[in-house]
Amino acid sequence: MTNNYALITGASSGIGAELARLFAVDGIPLLLVARRQERLHALQEELSCFVDVKVFPCDLSDTASRHSLLAYIAEERMTFDYLVNNAGCGQFGAIAENDWAATEQMLQLNMLALAQLCRQLLPPMIKRGFGRVLNVASIAAFQPGPGMAAYFASKAFVLSYSEALAFELKGSGVSATCLCPGATQTEFFVRAAMDDSGLVKGKGKSLASARTVAMQGYQAMNSGKVVTVHGLLNRLRVFSLRTAPRSMVTAITAAVLKAK
């Protein structure tokens, strides 16, 4: 057990909540961050029998809210051995038609919040000689995504950033891991208004469970693996994406994402 915490963003449901459960069972105190206060408190109540659980309701897409979180961490003098950047959202639709405010909010959350938390929490980890960072991207990171262009690009940022970070941290005792799941049974697709997309329509329970994705990411983080892609089919897809012409990959992705 440790007195240092794990900070998990997007912890109120899905992969984030499952990761919180895994940390709790291993005796690691938690700071859970998400927008939905009621769900955070419910998870806090569930896990408090295992470890100390603190919650901080916060919209990480908002710069002022991120500063409030960092101020809270400083005031509480909290130290962290683990940082899990799981919070993220998507946007479905053509670039020229999407609402810009929603696009900007998504980019703030998917990229800037992740980078800012890494920047603020990494120095103490490096100083102590131990830490684990888990950034949640997607198999979308490996390809362009017409119909979800900004989302796919934001996940490409997460993957590239994580790989570079892992290299910079070599020999420090701190590691960075990037988890790249495919379509998963979470609320993501509802929030992105893409229930009718060819990516998920009719697949339902055949999608990977949040629990199995979280478990793979948790194990990869603890072993110091740099990139982990969930699911054999997804790994095969990623391999084919790296060898196929980009124009063909883009066209196929557009066809898959297209609403039916």
Question: Which oligomeric form is depicted?
Answer: single chain
At the first level of CATH, the class is: Alpha Beta
Number of strand segments: 9
The secondary-structure class comes to alpha/beta
Query: How many helices?
Result: 9
Q: Fraction of residues in helices?
A: 40-55%
Mean pLDDT: 91
| Name of the CATH architecture | 3-Layer(aba) Sandwich
Fourth-tier CATH superfamily name: NAD(P)-binding Rossmann-like Domain
Low-confidence segments, given as residue ranges, are: none
Tell me what portion of residues adopts beta-strand conformation: 15-25%
| Backbone CA Rg | 18 Å
Indicate the overall shape.
Answer: globular
Question: What is the H/E order?
Answer: EHEHEHEHEHEEHEHEHH
User: How would you write the strand order of the largest sheet?
Assistant: 3-2-1-4-5-6-9
Profile the largest sheet.
7 strands, parallel
How does this structure look, described?
The chain is 49% helix and 16% strand. The protein has 260 residues and is α/β, with parallel strands linked by helices. The chain has one domain (5-257): NAD(P)-binding Rossmann-like Domain (Rossmann fold), CATH 3.40.50. The strands form two sheets. Strands 3-2-1-4-5-6-9 form a seven-stranded parallel beta sheet, with helices on both faces. A two-stranded parallel sheet has the order 7-8. Helix 4 (100-128) links the parallel strand 4 and strand 5. Helix 1 (14-25) packs across helix 7 (210-223) and helix 4 (100-128) packs parallel to helix 5. The longest helix is centred in the middle third of the chain and has 29 residues, at 100-128. The chain is globular and about 50 Å long.
